[in-house]
Amino acid sequence: MVRRIIAKRRIREFWERHPESKVYLQTWYETVRHAKWKQPKDIQSFYATVSILKNSRVVFNIKGNKYRLVAKIQYEKQWLFIRFIGTHEEYDKIDANNI
């Protein structure tokens, strides 16, 4: 089980600005909180559209790819750090491998 999701407040602040994302982000949060991922392929077997990047980064597509969430995962400790959440356009302007 993912023991800690760091920066839940960031998710909440995002859905306050984008209310249509709230249900999708709440579902993502609850799903991830109960996940038991030990390696990237475990995530891919659950989320078919996830992108695995370098530096332990993972990109989740939210609401049919309208939004993107970049997380850094420490598999040993089962911690997930939210590094970015934004629209697809905003995502295109960042370097997700190094954020």
Tags for this entry?
5 strands, 5-stranded mixed sheet, 99 residues, 4 helices, 33% helix, alpha+beta
Topology of this protein?
Elements: E1 4-6, H1 8-17, H2 22-33, H3 40-46, E2 51-52, E3 57-62, E4 67-74, E5 79-87, H4 88-91
Parallel strand pairs: 1-5
Antiparallel strand pairs: 2-3, 3-4, 4-5
Oligomer: single chain
- Overall pLDDT level: 92
User: Taking strands numbered 1, 2, ... along the chain, how are they ordered across the largest sheet?
Assistant: 1-5-4-3-2
Spell out the helices and strands N to C: EHHHEEEEH
The helix content is 25-40%
Structural class call reads alpha+beta
pLDDT < 50 stretches: none
Largest β sheet strand count, sense and barrel closure: 5 strands, mixed
Structure overview:
The chain has 99 residues and is α+β, with helices and mostly antiparallel strands. The chain is built from four helices and five strands; from the N terminus they run E-H-H-H-E-E-E-E-H. It is globular, with a radius of gyration of 12 Å. The relative contact order is 0.21.
